[in-house]
Specification:
Blueprint lengths: L1 H5 L7 H9 L20 E2 L5 E2 L2 H10 L7 E5 L5 H9 L2 E6 L2 H13 L5 E5 L12 E6 L8 H5 L1 E12 L5 E9 L2 E10 L15
Parallel strand pairs: 3-4, 3-6, 4-5, 6-7
Antiparallel strand pairs: 1-2, 7-8, 8-9
The chain binds S-adenosyl-L-homocysteine.
S-adenosyl-L-homocysteine (SAH) binds next to strand 2, helix 4 and strand 4.
Length: about 210
């Protein structure tokens, strides 16, 4: 998986590759899809949700440029896989999930793997997690029409936010937003497809 899908597509950061190597992805997918856990594809988990393709997890993580000392916020815990990768690369990770069963299951698995830098919170991620703000890095793993305002407010000066954001024609772009000298600078990275964000800032037309 790492050689072909990640290094083969140009992501070579040693810390990122180590993190991918150390998180057993097969534990994050349902038993019936375990044989496909390391395939170059997203997989269905439960409740109509998905675990992203390994390359997309790696790409989003690399855009956050984590050095190890950061506090990170993830919206959309899902299986907990992305949170586990972040937990290997940052000091403190808060991840929010809106489906109670998924939040509980991910918290159990992350605990079992000893990923104690990751805390799973049940709630609407569009509102962020103000208690631990600001965050040097924020990643949203569900698509919306625009990045929820509370998340932009919880981004630290110098911070990076990565999210799939809808463009006018209904397509989704993986978007990187950097908070630089009081301004938000946006870069479009790649065309992607994610499940829709729900909740107060959700993508209404898709829910
Ligand atoms: N990062 C996940 C993949 C997430 S799929 C992984 O590594 O497996 C998107 C997830 O976002 C789903 O679990 C969905 O339930 C959750 N979600 C959707 N809207 C949300 C919201 N407003 N707040 C928190 N979680 C949300």
């Amino acid at each position: 998986m790492i050689e072909e899908q990640i290094v083969g597509r140009g992501l070579r950061d040693r810390r990122l590759l180590d993190a991918l190597e150390r998180v057993p992805r097969h534990l994050f997918v349902p038993p019936s899809s375990r044989f496909a856990a390391y395939d170059d594809a997203p997989l269905s988990i439960d409740f109509g949700q998905t675990i992203s393709q390994p390359y997309i997890v790696a790409l989003m993580t690399s855009l956050l440029e984590l050095a190890g000392h950061e506090r990170v916020l993830e919206i959309g815990t899902g299986s907990g896989y992305q949170a586990a990768i972040l937990g290997k690369l940052a000091a403190e990770v808060h991840t929010l999930e809106i489906v109670p069963e998924l939040a509980a299951r991910a918290a159990r698995l992350l605990g079992r793997l000893g990923l104690d830098r990751v805390t799973v919170h049940l709630g609407d991620g569009g509102l962020g997690w103000p208690t631990a703000a600001p965050y040097a890095a924020i990643v949203i793993t569900a698509a919306s029409e625009r990045v929820p305002e509370p998340l932009l407010e919880q981004l630290a000066e110098g911070g990076r936010l990565v999210a799939p954001v809808a463009s006018g024609d209904g397509a989704e772009w993986l978007t990187l937003i950097k908070a630089e000298r009081g301004k938000l600078i946006e870069h479009k990275i790649a065309s992607v497809a994610f499940v829709p964000l729900r909740g107060k800032y959700g993508w209404r037309a898709r829910n």
